[in-house]
Amino acid sequence: MKGEMLHIFRNTPFGREVFLQSIYFGRMTNLRLKVYIPEQSQFLMYFSREVVTVDLDKSFLHSPETARQHAEELIRAAKIDAEFFVPKRYTASTLPEVPVDFDFMCCPRSISDLSTKISLGYIGPKVRSIIRNAEFPVLIPTPVYKEWKSIVVFFGGSANALNAFRLGMRLHHQTGFPLKLFTFMEKRPKGYYEDILRRHDLFSAIETEHVEWRFFEKGSLHDNLYHVPPDALVVVGAYGHGLIKELLFGSLMEEIQTVLPNSMVIVGPHFSRG
User: Fold this and answer.
1) Sign of the C-alpha dihedral computed for residues 128, 129, 132 and 137 taken in this order
2) What angle do CA 35, 268, 103 make, to 5 degrees?
3) Distances from the Cα of 144 to the Cαs of 41, 61, 108, 221, 234, in angstroms?
4) Domains identified in the chain and CATH numbers
5) How would you write 8-29 as a 3-class SS string?
6) Which end of the chain is more exposed for a tag (fewer CB within 10 A), N or C?
7) Could you list the mean pLDDT of each consecutive 10-residue stretch along the chain, which spans 274 residues?
8) What is the pLDDT of residue 123?
9) CA 58 to chain centre
10) 171: how many CB neighbours lie within 10 A of its CB?
């Protein structure tokens, strides 16, 4: 059965760029796009641990009379597999329910704040809630359409980082794009990270799949991020430890993501689709 990726369509120039990113991701990974054109500013996602109420900024409701037409034009031009999702279930408060059984979801860095008012490094609270609860990874694309031709996984040794590596391997197989592993050593020896992969039967993939593993022992994280190729899709676990935890959910998050504008796939703590 073909996998699916949820995309919340926004009928604006910014929304078009993000949709083109989803189209490209779907084409590269052979996913069917499930396109939701919202008619209300809120919807619910019933995760197993929490119900997330997603509040959309007003740009998601812009020009509803042309939204489907514009989405269909982009789908036809790309010649990809896509279908529109229309909610059938509503809560007592009349809010639509959006299912959570997708393989991926595309989210801009924030869905509750206008794109023109947020900094590049900002990840909004609703997007964080989705990442924290979802079993699927979340694609956070660049603000402007940009193709990626390689994959970089940040690996710090945590369980979440192992899942990020597994997903990176899957994307590598699906796309044929080269895969790199980046480790910021944080005063640990190289063997510490190699042993973690060995214990989880993943180390052999480094050689058999020709994965380039780069270790950064010196320099600041800020400086070392310069080595991430501009055409790379970055895959990272949302919850790790040390620098990688700070990358997404700590005090350095905004500064780091301003330095690193690549499209990212974020693997949350409940990721279960290998």
Assistant:
1) negative
2) 35
3) 24, 20, 11, 25, 16
4) 4-140 (3.40.50), 150-267 (3.40.50.620)
5) ECCCCHHHHHHHHHHHHHHHHH
6) N
7) 91 95 97 95 90 87 95 97 90 85 85 42 69 92 93 90 95 97 89 96 93 92 89 84 50 57 89 70
8) 57
9) 23
10) 22
Q: Which two tokens stand for residue 238?
A: 């949302």
End-to-end Cα, the chain, rounded Å: 15
Residue with tokens 């055409």: 231
